[in-house]
Amino acid sequence: MFKAIVVDKIDDKPQASLQELEESQLPDEDVLVEIAYSSLNYKDGLALTGVSICRRTPMVCGIDLAGTVVESRVDSWQPGDKVIVNGWGMSETQWGGYSQKQRVNPDWLISLPEAFNFEQAMAIGTAGYTAMLCVLALEDQGVTPDQGPILVTGAGGGVGSVAISLLHKLGYEVHASTGRSEIHDYLKELGAAAFIDRNELSPPGKPFQKERWAGAIDSVGGTTLANVLAQCQYGASVAACGLAGGNDLPASVLPFILRGVKLIGVDSVMAPRAIRERAWSRLATDLDVEKLSAVATTVAMSEVIDKAKDIVAGKVRGRIVIDVNK
Predict the structure, then answer these.
(1) Residue 75 pLDDT more than 70?
(2) Nearest CA to 82 among 141, 42, 122?
(3) What is residue 253's three-state secondary structure?
(4) Which residues contact 173 (CB under 8 A, 6 or more apart)?
(5) Per-residue pLDDT for 315 more than 90?
(6) Surface-to-core class of residue 50, CB atoms within 10 Å of its CB (0-12 exposed, 13-18 middle, 19+ buried)
(7) Kind of pairing between the strands at 232-240 and 262-265
(8) Residues 151-192: pLDDT tens digits?
(9) pLDDT of residue 52
(10) What is the pLDDT of residue 206?
(11) Pairing relation of β-strands 2-10 and 13-21?
């Protein structure tokens, strides 16, 4: 028997609870992983608080996991291999990482980079890996530090926190958008050089505004993203990866056709292996590991359901790592 957080439908409503499972209840996948750590992401918070993220039940939640292979029916992975998994529908259609054991598709696994231990890898997790994908997207579009400031919206969240740290280390001037003035010192420690109150970006604005940003990483969406696009410099690029502020885009084509602004969609859930390995390889070299202690807090799995309410309410700073064995 082992512990897991499971969402069941009770009176037709999703409800999460800490349960004991047997290995025979796990999915029939080729690799059995003994999990050490997982993490709490916004999507996990939605799943655990009853929002219809889980497309089937029962569902073991958790879109991240890090642990050790203990059984494998394929040659590509052997017992003792240290691995991580991010996304791939876990917590939605596939059982995930809020469990002491999980059977997973071998195609989902990538090797744990030597630069990180399990806890550090989950301090990065999907949020940090997504942040790296966004930085790579800007680099691939030719955005360089000498072109001007980069805006990071949702700066206090997991994606924002890691993005600021990465961009700062790479030499960019980072401006952070947040509605929480009490975390300014935290964001300065990560590398933020200036702050934009999120209330400047959240109301509807003009479709074409003063040029400010050479690039941006946006995890908010909605009117915030529309205003960011309207404020971009000529030729700027914006990497969009989230919808915490809404899934609509009430924007104009003017920034695209008059300033050549580029909007790049970033998906971390179903990204191919080569893209994942590129991102984790860059994280191993470009992320200041010492700053992870400022970004992340580790909690026991028994605390996760309560923490999920906080992340949905926007009360979580940085990253929450989950020790599944506590």
Answers:
(1) yes
(2) 122
(3) coil
(4) 145, 148, 149, 150, 193, 194
(5) no
(6) middle
(7) parallel
(8) 999 999 999 999 999 999 999 999 999 999 999 999 999 999
(9) 66
(10) 95
(11) antiparallel
* Structure-block tokens of residue 254: 């003017």
95: Cβ–Cβ under 8 A, 6 or more apart, which residues? 26, 27, 59, 60, 102, 103
**What pLDDT shows up at residue 95?**
96
How far is 258 from 260, CA to CA, in rounded Å?
A: 6
Q: Is the dihedral of CA 281, 283, 286, 289 positive or negative?
A: negative
Does the model's pTM come out above 0.90?
yes
Q: Has residue 316 got a pLDDT over 80?
A: yes
Phi-psi category of 273—alpha, beta or left, where left has phi over 0 and alpha has psi -120 to 50? alpha
Q: What are phi and psi of 111, to 5 degrees?
A: -70, 140
Positive or negative, the CA dihedral 215, 288, 276, 43 is negative
Contact indicator for 234, 260 with CB cutoff of 8 Å: yes
Q: What is the 3-state secondary structure (H, E, C) of 62-96?
A: CCEEEEEEEEECCCCCCCCCEEEEECCCECCCECC
pLDDT tens figures, 240-295: 999 988 899 999 999 999 999 999 999 999 999 999 999 999 999 999 888 888 88
CATH C-level class of 126-265 = alpha beta
DSSP 144: -
Q: Where are the domains of the chain?
A: 2-112+292-323, 126-265
Level-2 CATH architecture, domain 2-112+292-323: Alpha-Beta Complex (3.90)
Task: Check: CB of residue 230 under 8 Å from CB of residue 253.
Answer: no
Average pLDDT score over the chain: 94
Q: Could you report the per-residue pLDDT of 102-132, keeping only the tens digit for each?
A: 999 999 999 999 999 999 999 999 999 999 9
* The two structure tokens encoding residue 211: 């040029």
Q: Which of 137, 129, 315 is nearest to 238 (CA)?
A: 137
Are the beta carbons of 32 and 105 closer than 8 angstroms? no
